[in-house]
User: Fold this.
Amino acid sequence: MTDIYGITYGKLKAKLTEIGEKPSRADIIFPAIYSETPTAIAELTLKKETTEKLSGIFYTGELECMKVLTSETADKYLFALGDGNTVESVLMKHEFGYNVCVSTQVGCNMGCAFCMSGKLKKRRDLTVSEMTEQLLAIRRISGKKITGISIMGIGEPLENISNVLDFVDIAMYPKGFDIGIKHITLSTCGLVPKIYELADSRTPVNLAISLHAPYDELREKIMPVTKKYRTAEVIEAAKYYSEKNNRRITFEYVMLDGVNDSDECAQQLSGLLKGMNAYVNLIRYNDTGNTAFRCSPHERIMGFYDVLKKNGIGVTMRRELGASVNAACGQLSANCQ
Ligand code: SF4
Assistant:
């Protein structure tokens, strides 16, 4: 039996053909299972023999919601998976809509020093249906229309690229969540070969790269992935992505007091990004109990911001969402905006 929420529209059509059904039945099935009140397979408005056949192949799965922490700006959800693992997602509440920060793995192996989520080693990748069902469950529980997705929760999404691409395909289905590609952002710590693979996949999501330091020696200390993929290689891959997909790249930069927040770092960062179709998103560090790091003081963040501005680098400072519900997703909660 297969969870139907793990199959794309195109793959469902192929499956229907394979079992001797008209592929056009997908146009009845998909809108029904992704409607705001989803229909179970057995209740689809199809011939009885067809629903019986489909019921022997597919089921409509559901995540069990164990806990919801709510605040004015964000709600954090804890879901139980079928195998006893748990996963977190965050609903970020903006003036312009509701954005879900989706997790892609149980735990993470990337070991970023500032990340609480990364302390739990990766147990496994999430399946496509486990990602889709994060959206379904949050839409059902919150009653909100989801208008954007940040693939920035726990895990490194590009380690699970095949499932993530199918998930994006499903999220974009027009009679389902109908989320436009420009409202879907994927954040990576910089898996260089996978950035090229994503660039060539014809799925031009917004790409955010967690940079957090402008040179290898410093970046290695806070992001061990730098030992494998050097900062210059990450920048080259980002340029390729930007040019291939005509997209502006976001470089995430978390402000860590006395670590990466000097004017010199800002100068080096400016040099690295000069001429790129990119901007820097400065993130206030959300102190979730990790005593090794503190957020830079406001004046230091402003000083860093000014250096980037003077050097002609696009820079934003996002308000911190979700701190009160400890909405610390993998790439930091403040990214989920
Ligand atoms: S920041 Fe992201 S990539 Fe780094 S350890 Fe945390 S979850 Fe993994």
